[in-house]
Write a structure and sequence with these properties.
elongated; mainly alpha
Length: 107
């Protein structure tokens, strides 16, 4: 899920950058590409997931066109922020893989 979200986000923002956008939109697209790279690597996943979700909400409300891809990317990014990076990520190597064990109830 992390890889698909990052690849689609990077591909979308590179397409926007190739169309010679205004300076403000170009800066935001570069930041979105950077957060997509962080998601791709699995580095600072909760922070980058929230940033991508905020970017996609802003992008949906301010840019014309089909909003469904933007809504899907924002939803996936927010889910990644809540779920975490997974076992194969830089976060797991740096901070360890978090595992939640649910114990049986004692009567």
């Amino acid at each position: 899920m992390r890889l698909v979200t990052a690849i689609v986000l990077i591909g979308h923002t590179v397409t926007v950058l190739r169309s010679e956008p205004p300076t403000q939109l170009a800066v935001v697209s570069v930041l979105a590409t950077a957060t997509g790279m962080l998601l791709l690597l699995g580095l600072w996943t909760p922070i980058s997931g929230v940033l991508v979700a905020v970017y996609e909400v802003w992008n949906t409300l301010s840019q014309p066109g089909d909003p469904w891809v933007k809504i899907l990317l924002g939803t996936l990014a927010l889910a990644l922020a809540l779920l975490g990076p997974g076992a194969w990520s830089v976060d797991a190597r740096l901070f360890g893989w978090k595992r939640i064990d649910i114990r049986a109830r004692k009567n």
